[in-house]
Design goal:
Layout lengths: L6 E7 L5 E11 L2 E4 L3 H13 L4 E6 L1 H9 L1 H9 L2 E4 L2 H9 L11 H12 L5 E6 L2 H14 L4 E6 L8 H14 L3 E5 L4 H9 L6 E4 L3 H6 L7 H5 L3 H8 L1 H31 L1
Parallel strand pairs: 4-5, 4-9, 6-7, 6-8, 8-9
Antiparallel strand pairs: 1-2, 2-3
C-alpha cells in the first residue's frame, strides 16, 4: 500500500509574512485528507507551529464529524480547507493503520492533545485562549487547567451566543483573540460549528486554532470521560451513548453506519487503483 500514500503540503503563514511548507503524509477517509500523525507527532507539529507564530487551522475528525461532512458540502469544504485534520477517534486511526501507517496505533483525542500541549508549553510560556462552551464550563475549564498545570497562561476565554454570529460579532471576536496574543486558540463549539469557526478565522490569526469539541466539558469536569481501556478499543462511544442516549443515538447509529459505508467504498477504490 506504500504507493497509495499521498503527501500533503501544509502551508502556514509566519508573522514575517513568509510561507513555510511542511510535507506530511495523509490518507483519504470519507473524502477528507487525514494527517498520518500519532499523538506524539501531532503534539510536536503543533507545538513547533505555535513557537514560530504560524497560523495553523486544525480539525479533529472522528467518525461522526466525517459522516456529517459526507452529506454536508459546506462542512467538508471547511475540513478540506484546513491545514491539518487529525484522527480524533479510534476508527479513523484504524483506517490509517489499514492504509499502512503503523505509527497510528491510537487516536489523537482532543482532551489529550490539549493537555499535552499545555504541559509542553509551560517551558516556553505558551498562551492559551478558550472559545466556546457555556459560561459555567469556560470558568470551570480555566480553573481546572490552571490547577492541573500551575503556571499555565490563559490570556482569554469566552462563551459565545448559541446562534450564528453577526459579521460584527465575528469581527469583534477575532479582534479580542488577536489582541490577546494567544499561541493556541481552543475552540469548543461542537461539530460542525467549530470547524466553520476555525475555517473562517484561521487566516486572520497568527496562532494555532484547534476545534476540540467535548474536550472543554471533559477537562472542566462537567462530563465524565470513558475509561481509558474503552478508548483503546474504540468503544468510547458506548460509554457516551449510555450517559446521553437521547442526544447521541443518531450520532452513533446513523452517523456510524455512514462512516462504515464510506470506509468500505474507499477500500474498494484503493483496491481498484492497486490493480491497475
Amino acid at each position: 500500500m506504500a504507493a497509495l500514500r499521498p503527501k500533503c503540503e501544509v502551508k502556514v503563514t509566519v508573522c514575517s509574512g513568509e510561507i513555510i511548507s511542511v510535507s506530511i503524509a495523509t490518507y483519504d477517509c470519507c473524502d477528507v485528507r487525514i494527517a498520518a500523525l500519532s499523538r506524539e507527532e501531532a503534539v510536536a507539529v503543533l507545538d513547533a507551529a505555535a513557537r514560530r507564530r504560524e497560523s495553523l487551522a486544525v480539525h479533529m475528525c472522528n467518525a461522526f464529524s466525517l459522516s456529517t461532512a459526507l452529506s454536508d458540502n459546506s462542512h467538508r469544504s471547511a475540513l478540506t480547507r484546513g491545514d491539518l485534520c487529525l484522527a480524533d477517534g479510534a476508527p479513523v486511526a484504524w483506517v490509517g493503520r489499514r492504509r499502512g501507517y503503523r505509527n497510528m496505533t491510537k487516536p489523537v483525542r482532543g482532551p489529550s492533545l490539549m493537555g499535552d500541549l499545555m504541559e509542553r508549553g509551560l517551558s516556553w510560556g505558551a498562551k492559551h485562549y478558550f472559545y466556546g462552551g457555556s459560561p459555567a464550563v469556560v470558568e470551570e475549564l480555566s480553573a481546572a487547567t490552571v490547577a492541573r498545570f500551575p503556571g499555565l497562561r490563559i490570556v482569554g476565554s469566552e462563551s459565545p451566543p448559541f446562534r450564528t454570529l453577526t459579521a460584527g460579532e465575528m469581527a469583534a471576536a477575532v479582534t479580542r483573540i488577536r489582541t490577546s496574543d494567544a499561541h493556541f486558540v481552543w475552540v469548543g463549539l461542537g461539530t460542525p460549528k467549530q470547524d466553520f469557526f476555525v475555517s473562517q478565522v484561521s487566516r486572520q490569526l497568527l496562532s494555532v486554532q484547534v476545534g476540540v469539541g467535548a474536550a472543554f466539558d471533559f477537562m472542566a469536569g462537567a462530563k465524565r470521560e470513558a475509561p481509558s481501556w474503552l478508548q483503546g478499543y474504540g468503544l468510547e462511544w458506548t460509554f457516551r451513548l449510555a450517559n446521553e442516549p437521547r442526544r447521541l443515538w443518531r450520532r452513533y447509529f446513523i452517523g456510524g453506519s455512514r462512516f462504515v459505508a464510506a470506509v468500505i467504498r474507499d477500500d474498494m477504490r484503493s483496491w481498484r487503483f492497486a490493480r491497475r
